[in-house]
Write a structure and sequence with these properties.
There is one protein chain. This protein is mostly helical and about 150 residues long. The protein has five helices and two strands. A two-stranded antiparallel ribbon has the order 1-2. The protein is globular.
Length: about 150
């Protein structure tokens, strides 16, 4: 609270987004990965527990981003919105670099069955449930722009 030169009170409020358990988006060993950053394996992990609720054995409160007691599409979409843009999606092998290996992994995902496997989820750039030409266009734009760079 501040008082301006005219004697009027002014209230400033800073809103801070709080995630379940202060989560950073990396599920680590729970997602089957030991890499210390957000990657496709974390996305696949969330997809694998969609439908679980607070009383279920498979419920992971770290994936309940909207804190409503269940893991659903809203949590999956929040994960994507909050973490994946910074996750360097073209880094398919999660090594922190954009290389030819990532392109080869994307090509493998193009031939994979659509679903909740890690590569298929990572390659579904527009989140429409399938890996197709539209995803290829988006991947190609990101891969070309970031080839040879390090991910944040």
């Amino acid at each position: 609270i501040t008082i301006d030169t005219d004697g009027l009170l002014s209230l400033s409020i800073e809103v801070v987004q709080q995630f379940a358990n202060g989560h950073d988006g990396d599920f680590g060993p729970a997602s089957g990965s030991l890499n210390p950053k957000v990657c496709y394996d974390d996305r696949a992990y969330i997809a694998s527990i969609i439908g679980s609720s607070i009383n279920d054995a498979g419920y992971d409160p770290r994936a309940d981003f909207d804190l409503d007691g269940d893991i659903d599409a809203a949590d999956y979409n929040l994960f994507h919105e909050l973490f994946e843009e910074a996750a360097c999606r073209a880094d398919f092998d999660c090594d922190g670099q954009i290389t030819l290996i990532d392109l080869l992994n994307f090509q493998s995902a193009l031939t994979a069955q659509t679903g909740t496997t890690g590569l298929a989820l990572q390659a579904d750039y527009n989140n429409d449930g399938s890996v197709d030409f539209l995803d290829l266009l988006e991947f190609n734009a990101e891969w070309s722009a970031t080839l040879g760079t390090m991910c944040p």
